[in-house]
Specification:
382 residues; alpha+beta; 5-stranded mixed beta sheet; rod-shaped
């Protein structure tokens, strides 16, 4: 039942009418098998009903809906001709012996009500009703039996049509809901992409331009020129909508790239690494981006020109709870610090550090006080 909501509704209705027909065929098999010396025409009639049922529902399951030619063949042969053939050549003269063939008209009416155009459906139902009236009259059935079977035939058509109307309505509503959800996911993905580009611009190009504007470094220095060239290439990729960076192969290389980027802007970084664990590429990228921005903050705000970076892995929960292992990166400076109760976190700490770690299931915390410097800790998993 894969596909759109309407396709699922069609598949469900085909299955439901197939089960309805199967129940009527079961009655036919039991009725014919009870007569050990039954007329061959009864067996031929049952075989014809089985064959047409296989053709009708087999093709419907394969194609996804009923074929009009098969529906009409089922109505004319199974619903109309079979009862008269049993009466004329099968030796059927009693109401119970003819009942199983009449039952097949009920399941045929259900298919007719949903598979045929309105005028054709009304014509087919009229033929089935006339067959019931004439057939039961020939075997001398009572009015109660006749009325009950005609009522069952028409009720089957009405109920099947109601089910089909409801299923189509629900299918269309499901398709509309899926379309809205897809549009929302697309919009969300576009927003996330814009946010990613905004963060990248803040951490790279804007950080470089801010430092150059402050006049604290030589714009003609080879390291600065190299960094500017890299960021110009990034801008070109961004304009061409191909700005997605390649994932970092491993955490050590990712952190080294962040450190090199900071050192190219004349920030001295003392880095120590210890037993770094293998992490998913997106986690390594988050660590690198958050570390780069933490170092940029040291360069812009600490006023010391020196940062200390420590990265280490651990085999279990560092708090002793026996949880899974992970990695911790700390960036420390010995600058003036600030009062966290009064300071409003800037875009760098809020988005480039905290949100990036949170997106991969990590955590970023800032520990500082006036005169105590700043310690940024990046932890994954949180």
């Amino acid at each position: 039942m894969a596909g759109s909501g309407l396709q699922r509704a069609q598949s469900f209705l085909i299955l439901a009418t197939l089960l309805y027909r199967a129940s009527h065929l079961t009655v036919g098999v039991l009725a014919v098998s009870q007569h050990r010396q039954g007329h061959p025409v009864q067996y031929l009639g049952l075989a014809a009903a089985l064959g047409l049922s296989l053709l009708l529902f087999g093709a419907a399951l394969t194609r996804g809906w009923f074929d009009l030619r098969h529906v009409w063949a089922d109505v004319l042969v199974t619903g109309c001709l079979l009862p008269f053939a049993l009466y004329a050549w099968g030796g059927v003269r009693e109401t119970p012996a003819l009942g199983w063939a009449m039952l097949l008209g009920g399941s045929a009416s259900g298919v007719v009500s949903v598979a045929l155009p309105r005028l054709q459906a009304l014509a087919a139902l009229a033929l089935l009703v006339v067959t019931h009236l004439i057939g039961y009259h020939l075997v001398g059935a009572s009015r109660a039996v006749l009325g009950g079977h005609v009522n069952s035939l028409l009720s089957s058509a009405v109920m099947t049509w109601v089910f089909w109307w409801y299923l189509r309505r629900q299918g269309r509503m499901l398709d509309a809901a899926n379309a809205r959800a897809l549009a929302a996911e697309t919009q969300k993905a576009r927003y996330a992409e814009r946010l990613q580009h905004h963060r990248a611009l803040h951490d790279t190009v804007l950080a470089t331009l801010t430092t150059l504007a402050a006049g604290g470094i030589d714009a003609n220095a080879p390291a600065v020129r190299e960094r500017c060239a890299k960021e110009a290439a990034y801008l070109r990729r961004l304009i061409q909508q191909t700005a997605d960076e390649e994932p970092h192969p491993e955490m050590g290389a990712a952190l080294e790239e962040a450190v090199s980027s900071a050192e190219s802007l004349r920030l001295r970084v003392t880095a120590q690494y210890h037993e770094l664990p293998p992490v998913p590429p997106e986690v390594a990228a988050a660590f690198a981006d958050a570390t780069r921005e933490a170092l940029n903050n040291v360069r812009r705000h600490a006023g010391t020109g020196h940062a200390y970076l420590t990265a280490t892995g651990y085999a279990g929960d560092p708090d002793g709870d026996g949880g899974p292992g992970g990695a911790v990166v700390t960036v420390v400076d010995r600058g003036p610090g600030f009062d966290p109760d009064r300071a409003v976190p800037g875009l760098g700490l809020r988005r480039s550090v905290r949100e990036r770690m949170a997106e991969v299931g990590g955590l970023a915390t800032v520990d500082t006080a006036p005169g105590e410097g700043v310690r940024v800790e990046l932890r994954w998993p949180a």
